[in-house]
Amino acid sequence: MTLSRLILAQFRSWARLDLDPDSRPLAIYGANGAGKTNILEAVSMLSPGRGLRQAPPGDQARQGPGAGWRIRAQIGEHQVQTGAAPGTPREVLIDDKPGPQVALGRMMRVIWLVPAMDRLWTDAPEIRRRFLDRITLSFAPGHAEDALTYEKAMRERNRLLRDQVGDAGWYRALESQMAASGAALTRNRLDAIARITQSQQGATTAFPAATLTLLPGEGFADDADPASIADRLAATRGRDMAAGRSLSGPHRADLGAHWGPQDMPAALSSTGEQKALLISLILANARALSAENPVLLLDEVAAHLDSDRRAALYDEIIALPAQSFLTGTGPELFDSFGPRARYLQITRAGDSSTAHERDQP
Q1: Order of strands, edge to edge, in the sheet holding 210-215?
Q2: Which of 195, 31, 29, 201 has its CA nearest to residue 111?
Q3: Mean pLDDT over residues 275-293, rounded?
Q4: Rounded Cα–Cα distance for residues 108 and 322 (Å)
Q5: Whether 288 contacts 253, CB under 8 Å
Q6: What pTM was computed for the model?
Q7: Alpha-carbon distance 141 to 166, whole Å?
Q8: Complete domains list, the chain, with CATH
């Protein structure tokens, strides 16, 4: 579905913002701290989870945790509203009726790339697993429900382990839930990797393609057989009880990436190539979702690209059947778009941001 209206109220630095996105990329520029990324974050909140900053609802209100915020959007034929009153969890309304966050993932597929992700290949496995799960969620919105089911059962199992409970029957019931939902998580992840791989094959791109693998981490995080997972959980109870937590399973998965004729591990590549690999995966994700018209959020993506690679990136973005939002500090970063994009200049005075649509730089 297409995002055709976005209205922010008391969100981050925005007292109010009213945008009407269309099929053209929206290039958003302004000084650091002006409020550019806040717009991208607001769009990311139209998907399940905490958005691209992973912030709790109380931190997103313009006037602080004692205030509320609201985002309204037109997505296809549906009116969507999300926000949080002071001290309350985020709520979601779809056509004025309460709905679960997972429903947002079925309406609109949102993909993002932010500067903090530049360290993906050298960061902790947890960060790469979260990245993989965002990609997976873009293909399989039900992945979020599988993750919640798995985590709930694992928390209960961990409580039994910490309390040194020895009743095998209690463990079997929880491990059966972990095995069923954990197998679904692994199947979803493997399918996402396969779809990204297929999207990279034969694509005309200026960015290197990566060979992705699902790594087992510590244990059996690549096992997609429920019966096998249940058996392995049962076999590791003693070790897990000594540790007071579940040491193995789908929650320990990692994402591996290699590229080039030398099969270079991404973690050993140069900073520039690591960034290029990341951009390549995001573009492949968008291409693989072409039938769903995804939304692509690229925060400061051009800052460390030379002019030729910027031009190549913008050509690929134009070719995608996607809505794209990009940020940068100055209009010169978007010269290669020319008249193919819309331009929004952001300024800030005090604690308030203001937007002005501009002609081609």
Answers
A1: 210-215, 254-259, 264-265
A2: 195
A3: 94
A4: 11
A5: no
A6: 0.92
A7: 37
A8: 1-109+289-361 (3.40.50.300), 128-271 (1.20.1050.90)
